[in-house]
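Quick log. Single chain, no ligands specified.
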Amino acid sequence: MSLPQRPRAVVTGAGGGLGRALCLELARRRARVIAADIDLDAAEITAAAVRDAGGEARSVACDVAQEAQVEALAEHAAQAFGGTDLIVNNAGVAVAGPMAEIPSADWAWIMGINLWGVIYGCRAFIPRFKAQGHGAILNVASAAGLLCTPEMAPYNVTKAGVVALSETLCSELKPARIGVTVLCPTFFQTNIIQATRSRNANHQHVAEKLMARAKIQAPEVARVALASVDAGELYSLPHADGAWAWRIKRMSPERFYQKLVPRYFKRTMER
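-> predicted structure:
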């Protein structure tokens, strides 16, 4: 089900990176956007950019790890625009390092934002979508949720959870005319490096290099994601490397994890 003209959208993690790119792509459709972020100043910069690009926008401070704040966000959208056509659960952080060395506090931190934040977003908006008879959910996961590379256990677990939630909701919500899409990109330049807790200094260096050399960056990822929402697609994989790796994994999962992934991880870290 395609988004309506001038859609009413709520985007979390809208203060920069992919969140801002999604807001600007929505502005191309003259959308009415709630730009939500834990950093209100950053959210307002995005909202101003949306207005400059021809859309309508408001900024809201929201910590997605707090259910009451996400519920208040949904109510704010209802008051501002009379409802919501699209919720983009985008806010995310990262934790990296050998699994056994990662403190429980870091696990709790990333679970609260990456997984519970998406759960809260879906719980807040689904009843409203059902009441109005339509709606769309775009959950931002990652290729990490499909491929699960080493030394990224907390990130992999949360993103795999987002994929599983989206798959469940896809069939559950179809009779209610609510579309569900899960976005699974690989590397592109975003602000997640600044929101990463790592036990290995080399992780950040490697990630920055992979992000910089990506052929598809945030604006293109946003465009692909919204096109997938319009097409009613469950999975949105904007990067060819992620799409191919996912196909290979499904053909031979044990070989993928026992041989290919360790070899790729070692070679990447050595570079």
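The chain has a mean pLDDT of 91.
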